Amino acid sequence: MEKTIYCISGLGADEQVFSNLRVEGHRLQHIPWLVPGKKEDISTYAGRMANAIKTPSPVLIGVSFGGMIGIEIAKQLQLNKLFIISSIKSVAELPAWMKTVGKVQLNKLLPARSYKYAGSIGNRRLGVSTMEEMKMVQQYRRNADPQFVGWAINQVVNWKNDWQPGHLVHIHGDKDKMFPIKRISANHVINGGTHMMIYNRAAEIGKLMNVILND
């Protein structure tokens, strides 16, 4: 009988990012993003996301912002294993420019809808390298809920977490431009992996997860 792995995608993304990932003996179940309250904190939000988890001691994957949500869920729910991919696990790993944005509240001066027009700069940070990936990212931007995007960006740049669960496995790419490897202490590094590696390096990540889950 297949076991369930719960998956949380990156900011504004959906289950498509997991479409190439295969983990033996497991089925992937994506947890969709919820609409946040205007003043909802990340802990309360993570608790609501956790309501979608129906199995005891589950395995959870969080990508990018989803990894941060995964850590917040781990504070409230006993997990068997938490994989964070292309993400950060503490404020120490947050890039300096993001800390500055949060400190001066620059994110609140820019309309959330500007996320949709990030264009080539955003694509470089994401590591977009093919037309297929570009179309997928453009679709995310077109469909992004401005309320969610504004809330999520504010949570990222102001995240103060310094706690991590003992069952955490951090997988990161050494070419990630969103969260540069120089600040990251990862359990496993994917050579040449970018912020999009959950999609374009899924085979390697799946094999690694197979080994870890069957160890």
In short:
With 215 residues, the chain is of the alpha/beta class.
Q: So what's the CATH class of the domain at 3-96 and 161-213? A: Alpha Beta
> What is the correct CATH architecture of the domain at 3-96 and 161-213?
3-Layer(aba) Sandwich
How would a textbook summarize the main sheet? 6 strands, parallel
Query: Can you tell me the CATH topology of the domain at 3-96 and 161-213?
Result: Rossmann fold
What gap, in angstroms, lies between the N and C termini? 18 Å
CATH superfamily grouping of the domain at 3-96 and 161-213: Alpha/Beta hydrolase fold, catalytic domain
Indicate the overall shape. globular
- What pattern of helices and strands is seen along the backbone? EEHEHEHHHHEEHH
Low-pLDDT parts are 109-118
Beta-strand proportion:
5-15%
Number of strands: 6
- The strand order across the widest sheet is 2-1-3-4-5-6
The helix-and-strand class reads alpha/beta
Report the helical percentage.
25-40%
Could you report the average pLDDT, rounded to the nearest whole number? 87
DSSP summary: helix tally = 8
SSE layout and pairing:
Layout: E1 3-8, E2 26-30, H1 42-50, E3 59-63, H2 65-74, E4 81-85, H3 96-104, H4 119-126, H5 131-143, H6 146-157, E5 168-173, E6 188-190, H7 197-200, H8 202-213
